Amino acid sequence: MAAFDPWDPAFVDDPYPAYAELRDRGRVTYYEPTDQWLIPRHADVSALLRDRRLGRTYQHRFTHEDFGRTAPPPEHEPFHTLNDHGMLDLEPPDHTRIRRLVSKAFTPRTVEQLKPYVSQLAGELVDRLAAAGGGDLLTDVAEPLPVAVIAEMLGIPESDRAPLRPWSADICGMYELSPSEDTAAKAVRASNEFSSYLRELIAARRKSPGDDLISGMIAAHDEDDDRLTEQELISTAVLLLNAGHEATVNATVNGWWALFRNLDQLAALRADHSLIPSAVEELMRYDTPLQLFERWVLDEIEIDGTVIPRGAEIAMLFGSANHDPAVFASPDHLDLTRTDNPHISFSAGIHYCIGAPLARIELAASMRALLERAPTLTLAADPVRKPNFVIRGLEGLSVTL
User: Most buried of the four, 22, 176, 220, 310, by CB within 10 Å?
Assistant: First the structure.
């Protein structure tokens, strides 16, 4: 297991050889440093994402003590209150109710109507990058586009948006393996500040509703007159913002870094912009921004003769599953024409990413704008990989024209 080391910069820079070793070892491997069962193969990851014997939480069925786990430290409570009331970390029936209510406001029609705004904003950002002769693709295009889009959807005024990305980054630090106390302290502070801001915004929208997503979620109800509680509103807004731009930001820079390392594919894309839809899917597969997704074992399961007991934690390796040769021909080869591409970068089952259609619109819009308005875009310097393993991204991506 020496090759699989989430804290080794060399592994973080390129985990794919270690994934291949894991897949060769078998369908499941116990990893003692994190007390997790690693699942590296596509078929198993896909099936387990839909398996109701696993859960994102166990607290709908068990106490911490009953489940053989230790409760989080009391000083971490603000983070867990925020995190544990979001759809991503809930199971039915709460997950079902909240997702149904959010879907009433976050409709496909709502997302589709954003296309002109997303395209216009992407064009403006790329025009500024081109006028400057280059810059940092991360801070100049990849970050501001999805942050502005989800903030616009939620109804967060432009003057209030500066802290959104730092809050998100600090909160998402807790999703890494074995986060430090310093990481936890930053996440707690960000959780408190973000929650306080949203509580005031929700109160204002209750008095004066708009046509934004927060107003829509406040108004959403079903035939039983179920509504979102204030904490559910806050947690959902944070989840939509964090998931709505962390993944898209990292997918953008990971994707362009892959294109700069595969110049034949970049040339093909520049020659034929009709490849953009398949390119978005292939780049999401090739170097997914979410490498690992955890689930708790609620009821004992067996994988290839290995019994995994209730109370254990499973780590599904999305990055490995997306490179499984049993599913993808030449998986380590970037192929923008790949049509049979069942990648699992947006997860699957009841926790399939509700924002996937919006992410695809944003990724396609920024790619099209860069191809059309910055056709000579070139890498200026090799980027530095962020030290994070679970959420995979770059510190920046310096480009020139």
Answer: 22
